[in-house]
Each structure stands twice: as structure tokens, then as C-alpha cells.
Amino acid sequence: MVSIPSDIFSIFAQSEADDNFDYIFSNNVAPPALKTGLPHPGARINSTLQLVYCNNILAGGQGLASTDSNDLDRFNTPLETRGHSWRQAIDTLDTLEPYRLRWTVQQMVKSFAEDTLKGTAAVTEIVLLGPLLDREHYRILISGIIDKFEQSSSMDLTLLRGVVQVLECAPSGFLIDDDVVRITNVLFREFSAADSMANDHLVYLTWALSRILDVMVTGVVEDLNRDRDHQLILQLLTDLTNTGNAYVRHQVAHAFQALQYAYDDETPLRALWKFSQSSVVGLPD
């Protein structure tokens, strides 16, 4: 059981009241429109965003055919209509096009893994492909981006966001325990330099740790070492409760909650033994 500081949730009471908290939450908001064109069957793909959109349509994630609710009919944009028409044209005219588009995605992932430079622009584009990948190519992508993360000498916020984004899009069974361990080790390294870093870096690091803990729970990442991994994270979060940044404290509170449900390698018998050992400490002989 993770021991959470008793005053951690008092941070919500410390937030200043907003006198203008009169926000309007609209109902039946139209789905966001993806601003990109669609190629003719067999034509050259112009951008990574276009490639992602095409593959998403082929996977059934976009277009009128994937909309079941009549309430959303009035929100069918010209782009959605074109997506549906494009899918029909592909199915009718070019049965090899889906294979070509999937092959292009796979080749981009392999090229990214082989590129030792992996600049910011490459990271920004490659993370868009994460939800489209099968397990084999997802493993290539996540390993390549973690390698880059480990090799970075100074914190790259774009790379940090990319790592988190790739983690969050992983289907069940795609992640392994070592992925989380390697990423958190880099975060610990960056947190150790927190005194010399900009305040926004601390905010991003805490945000990333909180999101990674969410992935550990929802992605069912198991067999993390209880003493090595969980206790280090617990100590780090405890230290962060003293920060003066309200957003950081909010993320810490969320992370404490997630850490309680994160899986580890501690068996019930070992947990009982540790509890019994701590219970007898200080008792008279």
C-alpha cells in the first residue's frame, strides 16, 4: 500500500477562487475537422498528416460510415463526406492502395528507428503514426523514441511530449515493463537537476510522470520492482509536494492516486511480511 501524505489533497482548497467562473459547456459540439486533403488512389502522399488521415479512414475511424448517431448528421462536414467518398473509391478502383499506405507507415517507422539524429520535426511527425501500428512496428517506434530520450543531454520538451504521446496510444499488450523503467529513469535524472532548470521544465516533468503513472495503471504494466521503482517514485512525489507551483501540486496529487493502483512484483505474502516487520519495530523486548 502506498503511503500518501495526509495533507496532499489540501492543495485543492488552496486554489484561488475565480470570480469569472461562468463558463458555458456547449452540448452537441461538432467533431473537430482535420484540415488536410485526400490523394487520388495511387497518388503521392504529400504529408504525414495526410498519411495518418488516409490510414485512419481505411481503419474505419473517420467518415460517414463510422457515424451511428442521427444526432450528428447535421455536423457532417464536407471533409467527412470526402473521406467517405474516398474510401468508396479506394474499395472500388484500387484494392492495393490500403497495403501501399500501411507499408508507407511501416517504412517511416523503420527509417525513424535507423536515424541517429531524430530531430524535433521528425519526432513531432512520427508520434502521429503510433495509433496506426501493429505490435511489431509499435515496438520499433517506442524503442527508437526511448533511445533518443535516453541520449538527450538536455531536456527536450518536444521529445518529452512525444514519449508520453506514444505511451498513451499503446494498445493493451504492446508495452513492456522496461519501457516505463527506462523513461522514469530519465525523468529522475532530469528532476535531480530541477534547481537549475526553468520552472516550466518542472511543470512538464511532473505532468509527464503523472501521465506515465496513468499508463502504468490503464495499460496494465506489471512486474515493476516494488522497492526500486515504486519507492523511488513515491519519494520523488513526496518531495514535490513542497513546491510553490499549484499546477505541479495538482499533478502530484493525481500521481499519488495513480501510484496506489500501479501494479508491481510484490506478492501478498511478502507484503504481509513487510507489514509485520514494521509493526513490531519499537516494541519492548
TrEMBL record:
Pfam families on file: ARM_5 (PF23948)
Segments forming domain Arm-like repeat: 97-278
Domain of life: Eukaryota
This protein's name: Arm-like repeat domain-containing protein
Protein's organism: Linnemannia exigua
Lineage per the UniProt record: Eukaryota, Fungi, Fungi incertae sedis, Mucoromycota, Mortierellomycotina
